[in-house]
Write a structure and sequence with these properties.
single chain; mainly alpha; Arc Repressor Mutant, subunit A; 6 helices; 9% strand
Length: 132
């Protein structure tokens, strides 16, 4: 395996595991938080739009949304086509978001404390180049 990818995957797992530790106090996992964050930023979305945007398999998104429904954080409504379901944040989710966002921002700050603004910009540009 290319050392670049090995390091990248190791760092990704490290970040996800530590983010899950932070989110635990809110009763969430990183996969759930990602969907809540996307819905907050982009508004209600179809399941298809969510999995395409996040580059995650459809069954994974469906299972995560189902769990978020059970937690009372999202609701599904029929779209213009009855087969299409639009996912919305609930009032409970909107009330929870500020505390979760604060925890996540603090986590991100700790993870990037040794990066300059230039480092951050360069890393983001390099990651974009990998898309091809």
């Amino acid at each position: 395996m290319n050392p670049l990818f090995h390091t990248f995957f190791q760092q990704y797992r490290y970040l996800v595991n530590h983010l899950n530790d932070v989110l635990k106090e809110h009763g969430l996992y990183s996969s759930q938080w990602t969907i809540l964050f996307v819905l907050k930023e982009r508004g209600p979305m179809t399941l298809t739009a969510i999995w395409k945007y996040l580059n995650v398999e459809a069954p994974t998104v469906t299972r995560t949304v189902t769990r978020l429904e059970t937690l009372g954080l999202v609701r599904r409504e029929e779209g213009t086509d009855r087969r299409e379901k639009i996912v919305h944040l609930t009032e409970q989710a909107l009330a929870l978001m500020p505390a979760v966002e604060q925890s996540v921002l603090e986590f991100e700050r700790k993870m990037t404390v040794h990066l300059t603004d230039e480092d951050t910009t360069q890393l983001m540009e390099l990651l974009q180049k990998m898309k091809g």
